[in-house]
Design goal:
There is one protein chain. The chain contains 14 helices and six strands. It is of the alpha/beta class. The chain has two domains: 34 residues, no CATH class; 294 residues, 3-Layer(aba) Sandwich (Rossmann fold). α3 packs parallel to α4, α5 packs across α7 and α12 runs antiparallel to α13. The radius of gyration is 20 Å and the shape is globular. Zinc ion binds next to α1.
Length: 338
């Protein structure tokens, strides 16, 4: 049967697990889609404000912020500090060995503008390259649903960030960790972590790393067991305020350009901050046959944050061959000849 694309989002019948209802023309995600109402969003925002009021001023910082230097994370930090100027924020940028110069410059600039402290999490390039190479060479190392959310390389990278931010939050007694996920990426706006959950997710990541051949005995990528043991009672909460705000890519860019954020020169529309992204997408397409951003972008289209045309264009866009080659060289991987 020929490929059928969902009438509302961009998922199609060639993607494993996706069927399109022939009567409605929708995929099952679109058929069961129930976005937060304006009222529910308002209630979540009121709850977040209440939490800020209640817990601020207790630790070294009020918020640990995951800052990539890309547009969404830069904008979210800007608006967070505009709406809640009293928050003391430590913005953490992970240098995964492929971070663009522009992303570092933008991250530092946005921290200066918002009065946030900037911290760059660094690791030895050799260790990172080795890890990403093993992720690229792995197949189905993560639970099935993970590969629909991101490439194996990106899954490793984002999980390292999450682990290390949780660790920082515990060590510095910071009550909140904030990420810049959009409504299309459909996170829960408020996630209260518990010591048991932190331990469980740490051990699960350790197992996944082992599956791809990484034995992280120094706990470079994992929340240190010692830190979890010292955790008494309350654990930090993860907040996703961007999914509660009105969002459009144009509005975000407009705001950022006004305050002096500079659009990066990297030729890759899916990531404005990481030079490994094109290779990660290429690797995922080769292994699994669909673009790793398909579900993410389908979510953005479904929630109205992106037009369907733009979404289809993004997942069908040619990946940058020079960026792919450059990353493959760093990872010491050979590319198939096209
Ligand atoms: Zn759909």
């Amino acid at each position: 049967m020929s490929k059928v694309v969902c009438k509302k989002c961009i998922l199609d019948s060639d993607i494993p697990g996706i069927t399109i209802n022939m009567e409605t023309g929708f995929c099952h995600f679109c058929e069961t889609y129930a976005p937060l109402s304006l009222q529910e969003k308002g209630e979540y925002l009121a709850k977040i404000e209440e939490l800020f009021e209640k817990h601020r001023g207790k630790g070294n910082y009020d918020v640990i912020y995951a800052l990539s230097g890309g547009k969404d994370s830069s904008y979210t930090l800007y608006k967070l500090k505009k709406d809640y100027p009293f928050l003391k924020v430590l913005a953490v940028q992970f240098n995964n060995g492929f971070i663009s110069e522009g992303a570092v410059k933008n991250a530092k600039k946005i921290c200066k503008i918002t009065g946030s402290d900037y911290y760059q999490l660094t690791m030895q390039n050799k260790i990172l390259y080795d890890t990403f190479r093993k992720a690229a060479e792995s197949y189905d190392a993560f639970p099935k649903f993970a590969k629909y959310r991101a490439s194996d390389i990106c899954n490793i990278c984002i999980t390292i960030i999450k682990q290390k931010l949780i660790e920082q939050a515990i060590v510095q007694k910071v009550p909140f960790i904030v990420f810049a996920f959009t409504a299309g990426q459909s996170p829960n706006p408020i996630i209260n972590l518990s010591p048991n959950f932190i331990k469980w997710s740490r051990n699960m990541f350790e197992t996944q790393l082992q599956k791809i051949g990484i034995h992280d005995k120094d706990e470079l990528f994992l929340v240190k067991n010692k830190v979890i043991e010292d955790l008494e009672g309350s654990a930090p909460s993860i907040l996703h305020p961007l999914c509660l705000w009105e969002y459009s890519e144009d509005k975000v860019l407009e705001t950022l350009l006004e305050i002096g954020w500079e659009p990066p020169g990297i030729n890759d529309s899916n990531s404005t901050n990481c030079t490994l992204n094109s290779f990660a997408c290429y690797n995922h397409l080769e292994k699994y046959g669909f673009h790793p951003y398909t579900f993410d972008i389908a979510g953005l289209v479904r929630s109205g944050e992106m037009s369907r045309e733009e979404g289809l264009e993004k997942i069908n866009q040619e990946l940058s061959r020079p960026l792919i080659e450059e990353a493959a060289k760093k990872l010491k991987l050979n590319l198939k000849e096209d």
